[in-house]
Amino acid sequence: MEPSRPGRPAPLLALLLLGTLALSFAGCQDPSPLIRRHTSAIIGGQAAGPCAWPTAAALLFTDGTLCSGVLVAPQVVISAAHCFDKQSELPAIYLGEDLAHPARTLTATRCDKHPDWELDEGLTPQDITPYDLSYCYLEQPVEDLGLVPILMGCEAEALSEGTPAVMVGFGRSDEEISGLKHAVTTELFRVAPRVISVGTPTAGSAHGDSGGPCFVQNSEGQWRVLGLTSSAFVSGVAGETNLALIHREIPWLETRAGVDLTPCFDSDGTWAPTADCGTFGGAPQLTEGSWSEGCSAQRTGLSSACGAAFGQAPLPDSGAGLVDGSDAPAPEEEGCSLAGQCAQTAAPGALAMGWLLVLVVGWLALRARGRLACLHPGPDCNSSHHQTKN
Hints:
Blueprint (H helix, E strand, L loop, with lengths): L15 E2 L24 E2 L2 E2 L8 E5 L5 E8 L2 E4 L12 E4 L8 E10 L11 H4 L5 E5 L14 H5 L6 E6 L12 E10 L4 E3 L5 E2 L7 E5 L5 E13 L2 E8 L4 H8 L83 H5 L2 H21 L15 H6 L1
Antiparallel strand pairs: 1-15, 2-13, 3-11, 4-5, 4-7, 5-6, 6-9, 7-8, 8-9, 10-11, 10-14, 11-12, 12-16, 14-15, 15-16
């Protein structure tokens, strides 16, 4: 277990897996009669307004366990694997701001958790967090919302401590109210290959809000889903939340769900944009639009975060223009910056033909003026100008 950061109270030795302390709504099939319990979640945040972070989802199980998740494809919602521990029924999935009045009710046809996930109290968060992932496949696609794609490739490599992040979930807020969507702006404080941690003493998560998304922005300012709330060390007023990193397990997720979840990348993080690498949700943080209209209509353009956008290619070494038909000038069109540069690039055969043409033209000019001597005496040399000179 890593030591706590300077200035923080020492964290509890126990790892609190967030879903095991989720809300208890035993026997509730309808989310409206929510019992608002004291289950920690977003700390220091605010209630999300209508249509803000619209892809954040709530998963409610028949035994009353409440988790969060996020819609990452029209028919795929992902959440934490530990939410499904001891569950035999599929959860009901809701979109909106308040589970008492959900904007959308989604039906899952199947759900599955990572095969390497195993809850063991003897393991550290670094051991278990990487596999704390699950997915649910929806009966009907959600096609009118602007999705936020999963952070991948060079986008993930650019992360560092201090990167701003937004955490969203349906757990308890500072007002100890559960079932309402809250969001808090915080930052990353630990960035390692197997685990990334997020939170500050006054803004983050503790226990509760399992599977909720953590959003960050890439170099283009576009929003991405970095990870899911997995586990927390409770310390003082706020906990240090470890994230389940989605990009590490894309091969498993895509294989099991049967869906391309990374339209800008191959599953190994290589930049390989498709026509769907764009038109993502442009401003998911805004309270804009209505649920009946698919919330915010803002969309991103084609992404070039880690390379050329779909349909474009970088200039090759020969200096040819862009393959998308743009009129970027090739170097030949800009003129020769150094004397003799253009002549040096000409083909040798073309140079020889040029000099031969110069000689022929000169010879014809001299002959026309009568200054060319006869190299072969004969009748043709008895021209009038030679007779005059005699």
